[in-house]
Amino acid sequence: MTGIWGILNVTPDSFSDGGRYTDPDVAVAHARMLRAQGATVIDVGGESTRPGAERVPADEEQRRVLPVVEALSADGIPVSIDTLNASTAVAAVHAGARIVNDVSGGLADERMLSAVADTGADVVLGHWRGPSSDMYARAQYARVAREVASELRARIGAAAAAGIAPARLILDPGVGFAKSGEQNWEVLRGLDETVALGHRVLVGTSRKRFLTEALAAASTHEVTERRRDLATAVTSALAARAGAWAVRVHDVAATRDALAIVGAWDGA
Asked: Which residues are 247's β-sheet partners?
C-alpha cells in the first residue's frame, strides 16, 4: 500500500495553510488528526518553499519545528523534517525525526548530505534547480522527465559519496519546483523514469498551482481548497499506480479514500 505523508507547515507564509499551525499545540493536534486519518508519516516544515519565498534563519526555523517534532516523536508518530538546512536536519533527528526531507537534494546547504549521513536517518532527495525566489527562470528542459531522472541520479551519487547507504534514499521528482504547469504533468506522465532509478519515490502534488490551472481551465466555478484536495487525491492515486512509494498531501482522508478505491479496482 502506498504511504501517505501528512503535511504540517508550522509557518506563517506557506502558500496554502500558512499561519494555521504556528501554535505548537494546534500543530500537534492537527498532526494527531492526520495520523488518525491514515498518515504514515507527518512531514514537519518550518520554512515555506512556495514560489517567491525568502529564506528563514535556521534558528527561527528550529524554534518553529523542534517542539512539534519532539511532541510527535514522543507519541510514537513517524516524523520527517522538511528542511534545507543541515543544522535543522540534525537537530530534528536528535529530537526524534526519522527522515530528512530536503527538496533541494542537498544542493541548498553543502553540509547537508555529510551531516545527515552521520545521523542514520533516511533522506529524501528532491529535484531542484535553485531557490524558490527565482526557480521558474530555471525551468528550461528538452525532455523534462528524463532530465529530472538524470539530475536525481547525480544526487544519488553525491549521497553515496557522503556515506549515505542506498537503502536510506527516497527520491522526489520535485513537482512544482523549477517546472511550468505542463512540465509538471510531463514529469508525472514520465514518473517511470524516476521509479526506474531503483529507490523509493515520494510524489507531492498537493494543492499546487498546476492543479489549480487545470481545474480553472475545465470549469468557470471557483477553484476552492476542496476542489484542489480532490485533484490532489486523483493525482496521488495515479502516482501510486505509476509506482510511487508514498505521496505527500494536506488532506490525508481524501487521498486515503482515493488509494483505497484504486486498490479495489486493481484487486489489491
From this structure: 4, 203
Catalytic residue check, 248: yes
Q: Which of 155, 208, 228, 256 is catalytic?
A: 208
The answer on pLDDT for 18 being more than 60 is: no
- Measure Cα distances from 130 to 48, 218, 254, 255 in Å: 14, 31, 32, 30
- The yes-or-no verdict on residue 68 having pLDDT over 90 is yes
143, 60, 154: which is closest to 106 by C-alpha? Answer: 154
Rama region for 13: left / alpha / beta (φ>0; ψ in -120 to 50; rest): alpha
Per-residue pLDDT of 101-128, as tens digits, reads 999 999 999 999 999 999 999 999 999 9
Q: Is 226 a catalytic residue?
A: no
Tell me the three state secondary structure of residue 43: strand
Say how far apart CA 37 and CA 254 lie, in whole Å: 9
Q: Would you say residue 246 has pLDDT above 90? A: yes
Q: Which of 64, 155, 248, 256 is catalytic?
A: 248
pLDDT at 189 over 70: yes
